[in-house]
Design goal:
The protein is an alpha/beta fold. It has three domains: 64 residues, ADC-like domains (N-terminal domain of TfIIb, Single Sheet); 58 residues, no CATH class; 138 residues, Dimethylsulfoxide Reductase, domain 2 (3-Layer(aba) Sandwich), CATH 3.40.228. It is 35% helix and 18% strand. It has 14 helices and 14 strands. It has a three-stranded antiparallel β-sheet with strand order 3-4-5, with no helix packed on it. Helix 11 packs antiparallel against helix 14.
């Protein structure tokens, strides 16, 4: 074993002009309008991709070097994220280096080629269809693949295996929300834009924690210069609730009681824009009928009652029915 000797250390001066850290930190003007980048991470091409972690829809520029992704930046010109990315977005390439990432198809535990894997998979699926009929097999795709991959999956299933039924999780997971959108707003998508978060006087979040779950959307809230009232309806004291003007900690499933209570107060006090209701809604007469409200109230089965509070800071009203713990009755 070699013994330590001061002579084995590199000779140092008061100021080093070169070295490994210098090579790693040295930045040079990058191509494709990317600004300055480390010399070792200069891309040879750039492609755009929507971040796959959540449904905010942020666009990222993926930097490729010799055909492999080496870095990314947020797209400054994209209207959704405006050059921003959250921690999840900045780590979008990290799974590519994951040790448990599947990169080679296996058959009975042994590596095989992609061509063999595709042929084996297709032939076995066709055998099932031949034995049990064309409706015996279907597929559901993930919601975290790109449009091109979704198109390829559809073609592979239909023309490669003869599958006639398929669906996407992007539709399945939103089925109830889309139904609610159409019933509430007459359209199968949220009736607002991200820019509304910067312009609204009142923002209400029900069971949502965008401060953590959707940081890019929360940045829009922080850019609002109108000093908006932020109302958070959530049993949890989340980060968003901590930043709220008013946090309503309803018990689990208490949101329905709260919303029916608010609707009851609005109807009782006649705080309703009847011309708007007549022009843009249907079923209002049934909803506002006292017997209908009593029926909905009885189905809630919440024995602890509502606390009716006078709130000078509640946006656009002076009286609101607040769900307390399990809450459930209004007059």
């Amino acid at each position: 074993m070699n013994e330590f000797s001061p002579r084995s250390l590199p000779r140092l001066t008061l100021r080093e002009w070169d070295g490994p850290l210098t090579d790693e930190l040295l930045r040079v003007p990058g191509p494709f309008g990317l600004g300055q980048l480390p010399a070792k991470q200069q891309p040879t091409s750039v492609t755009s991709s929507v971040c796959g972690y959540c449904s905010t829809g942020c666009n990222l520029k993926i930097h490729h070097r010799d055909g492999l992704p080496v870095n990314l930046t947020a797209d400054a010109d994209y209207p959704v994220n405006l050059g921003m990315a959250c921690p999840k977005g900045w780590e979008a390439l990290t799974p590519l280096a994951g040790p448990q990432r599947a990169t080679t198809p296996l058959l009975d535990g042994a590596p095989i080629s992609w061509e063999t894997a595709a042929n084996t998979f297709c032939s076995r699926m066709k055998a099932i269809i031949a034995e049990h009929g064309p409706e015996s097999v279907a597929f559901v795709s993930t919601g975290q693949i790109c449009t091109e991959e979704m198109a390829f999956l559809g073609a592979f299933a239909k023309f490669g295996m003869g599958i006639i039924h398929g669906d996407g999780n992007t539709r399945q997971c939103m089925a109830t929300a889309v139904t609610a959108y159409k019933q509430s707003f007459g359209f199968d998508a949220p009736p607002y834009t991200y820019a509304d978060l910067e312009e609204s006087d009142v923002l209400v979040f029900i069971g949502a924690n965008p401060c953590i779950a959707h940081p890019i959307m929360w940045q829009r809230v922080l850019k609002n210069r109108r000093d908006p009232d932020i109302v958070v309806i959530d049993p949890r004291f989340t980060e968003t609730a901590q930043a709220a003007t008013w946090h309503i900690p309803v018990a689990t499933k208490g949101d329905l009681a709260l919303l029916y209570g608010v609707a009851h107060v609005l109807l009782r006090e006649d705080w309703v824009d009847h011309s708007f209701v007549e022009a843009h809604t249907s079923g209002f007469d049934d909803f506002s009928r006292p017997s209908s409200r009593t029926s909905r109230q009885s189905r809630l089965k919440m024995p602890r009652g509502f606390q009716r509070r006078t709130l000078s800071d509640w946006p656009s009203s002076s009286v609101v029915a607040s769900a307390s713990r399990s809450g459930g009755r209004w007059e």
